[in-house]
Design brief:
single chain, 86 residues, mainly alpha, 2 helices
Length: 86
Amino acid sequence: MYRTYSYKDMPEPVMRHREEKREISPPPPPPQKREEKKDGIFGGIFDNIETDDIILIVVALVLLIDDCDDKLLLLALAFIFFSEWF
């Protein structure tokens, strides 16, 4: 009435007469990063300037044009600007 599942009672695996040979293709090579060279007047000097740097420069220039008396604010903006480089 009860069936046992021991190694003796397990069914035998059916062996295929012909093994399927699948050729494994090699994975595609990873894409290479292109190094873009910026030639021109500002090519080497301003390579690392990003959007946030430009915003900091514009804010500092607007404050300087408006005759800002708050030198601590200008020093704080300069510190933030130069802290990315060090």
